[in-house]
Design a protein that fits this description.
The protein has two domains: 2-52, Helicase, Ruva Protein, domain 3, CATH 1.10.8; 61-165, CRAL-TRIO lipid binding domain (Phosphatidylinositol Transfer Protein Sec14p, 3-Layer(aba) Sandwich). The chain is built from eight helices and three strands, in the order αααααββααβα. A three-stranded mixed β-sheet has the order 1-2-3. The two termini are 23 Å apart. The longest helix is centred in the C-terminal third of the chain and has 27 residues, at 107-133. The chain has 169 residues and is mainly alpha-helical.
Length: 169
């Protein structure tokens, strides 16, 4: 089935992304229990989503100009690797200041920064970690620091943003 899926990709000329290797494509197969029609539908939707949001070029086409201004109000980022070579992502949710964040940035820019961050992870961090570890790395180790966090900090807009942002994969 996997070979049929790869053949479909080649015949239909739908994927020119060098980061979409066999391990990556297998995620779609496992996600649809190796049902070829369902896998093709899922992959087609994924590629359309990438095209619609400009994800193949977002690393070079988009500059998050307000990153330094936003960071004190939403501190997050990658910091080294863990013992098995995965990138370490730290998000300090207790330091999120929603009202200050939204006074600096529009929601669309926040989304684009999330997309760009994920593309940098896939195209740079995973590749560098894989080369260093001598094996394929395709997961992160995430630390969610809740120091200073209270449920009162969560309004509907922040909750929806965090929930949707966690689904970007």
């Amino acid at each position: 089935m996997f070979d049929q899926f790869k053949k479909w990709i080649e015949v239909n000329d739908v994927n020119h992304n060098p980061w979409h290797n066999d391990a990556f494509l297998l995620r779609f197969c496992r996600g649809r229990k190796f049902d070829l029609d369902a896998v093709i539908a899922m992959f087609s939707n994924y590629m359309e989503y990438r095209k619609k949001n400009g994800l193949d070029t977002i690393v070079t086409d988009y500059t998050f100009t307000k990153k330094a201004e936003c960071f004190p109000h939403y501190p997050r980022g990658y910091c080294g690797v863990d013992l098995i070579g995965r990138p370490v992502y730290i998000e300090r949710s207790g330091k999120i200041s929603p009202s200050k964040l939204w006074s600096i940035i529009e929601e669309d820019d926040m989304w684009r920064s999330f997309y760009q961050s994920y593309e940098v992870l896939n195209k740079l961090h995973y590749m560098a970690c894989s080369l260093t570890a001598g094996k394929q790395i395709q997961h992160t180790f995430s630390i969610l620091d809740l120091t200073g966090f209270s449920i009162g900090m969560m309004n509907k807009r922040i909750y929806a943003l965090l929930q949707a942002g966690s689904k970007i994969t």
